[in-house]
Every structure is written in structure tokens, then in C-alpha cells.
Amino acid sequence: LDLASIDDLLRFKVAEKGSFLPARRLMGFLPPDSAGINLSVPESDGPQWLVLGSPSHEGHVFSTRFDSASPQACAGLIAGYTGPDKPYYLFTRTLSPTGEIFALESVSPLGTNLLEKIEIATAAPGRKSTGFTLLCDVSRKTELRLYRDRDMVLFHNSETGFAGASGIYIGGKTAARISAPEYYYERSDLFR
To answer: Which of 51, 82, 86, 158 could covalently link to 164 via disulfide, CB atoms 3.0 to 4.6 Å apart?
Structure first.
């Protein structure tokens, strides 16, 4: 999908909760289309998300750049979204006092189920980067590969697959800047 502007995000939006996008372009107050995407999502008491694409999309790759200085920032990606009352997957990165915690959960109307989790210690405690890119690769039907800054951090298999739309997630008590979302159908950075 071509996600080069806020208008593109509005066109491909499937679901939204929170303060990601304006309802419409008002008299040129938003940046022009050529400015690219650079969204500021304010802190909220609860989680916020923006789902893009189509609930019928098969394998694809989705990534977004996040910048957050919140002390326990939680940001992530949604995969396999097929509707508001259907299960989907949530991949999050949360800051901890000693590093980063990456988790994959299955989310349904009945609650959440933790599928995978790993904590990665920071090289220099107290010096945490505020910027990172998360990538969700469901280009292979039954494999979900999850990356932070080009490094795979989690992997999950499912016999039922991961078809559906993808999205951006910001946890409660987290303010973040979001930029460079990409949604494409095959990995061009891998050799097969």
C-alpha cells in the first residue's frame, strides 16, 4: 500500500481508537501530502491503535518508526486484524528499568493470551534510545516474524495463519511520534 501521506492513512484506515488521525483535512492545517507521515500521538489513559489495509489481506509486511521518551513507553504493531469482535495478534515493545520487553499476545473479546515474551538487556543501563522501528512479517502464511531495528526478536507459528489487516499500537501512559509506516506484500531486503 502506498502510505506516503496522511490522506493515504485515512484512505486505508480500517479501525482507529485514540488520537492518530484528524477526522478530515481542515483548510490546509495538516502538512501537504509531500511532507510524508509524521504523527504525534498524545499520552492517553488507555491504549490507542490505528489499523490499516484490509481484513482480507493475505501475507504482507508492515513496519513503523516510533519515537517516545515516556519512562515506560509501550508501542507495537497489530497483525491479523479481521474485525472488532474477532481475535488478532499484538506485538509490543515496552521499556523496563534494565532494557526492553518484547511480547506477542493473542487478543480476543474474551481477553488476552501471552504467546511469546523476551527481555533484552540494554548494553549501557540508563542510556535508552527513544527511537526504534518495529516490523511484522506475515509474508509466509503460517509464520509471524517480529523485528526491532532489523533484528528478529520473536517468532510464532500458527496453523490457521495470520491473514488480516495490520496496525499501529500505543499503550496507555505513552506519548509517541510515529513515522515511516510501510505496508508491502513481499520482503525486498531478504534473499530466498
So the answer is: 82
Spatial separation of the C-alpha atoms in residues 142 and 160, rounded to whole Å = 7
List the one residue out of 146, 79, 88 whose CA is nearest residue 117.
Answer: 146
Q: What share of the chain is helix, strand, coil (3-state, %, to 5)?
A: 5, 50, 45
The predicted model scores a pTM of 0.88
Name the burial class of residue 167, with classes exposed (0-12), middle (13-18) and buried (19+) by CB atoms within 10 angstroms of its CB. buried
Report which DSSP code applies to 178.
E
CA quadruple 106, 168, 153, 164: dihedral, nearest 10: 50
**Over 41-57, what HEC string results?**
ECCCCCCEEEEECCCCC
pLDDT at residue 34 in the model: 43
Alpha carbons 103 and 109: distance in angstroms, whole number: 19
